[in-house]
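Problem: given the chain below (70 residues), write out its structure.
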Amino acid sequence: MTEKLTEARSKANRKWDEKNKIRTGYLRHKARAKSFITKSPKDGATKPNEYLNDLLDMKKLLDKKINELK
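Solution.
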C-alpha cells in the first residue's frame, strides 16, 4: 500500500517538518524505540542474550520514567 507522494505533498511535508522540528524529532525517536522492541533481535544483536539484556535495561529506564511522571 505504498503510494508515491505527489511533489506538492512532499513539499508540504518538508515544510511542516521544517516548522515543527521538535515534534518531528519526538515522532522519529518514538518510532525508532518501537521498532527496536518489535523487530527481530537477529538484526543486530551478536552476543547471546544481548537483545534480552537491552530490553531489560530499557524496561528499568521506562519504569523509572513512568514513576517520575506519576
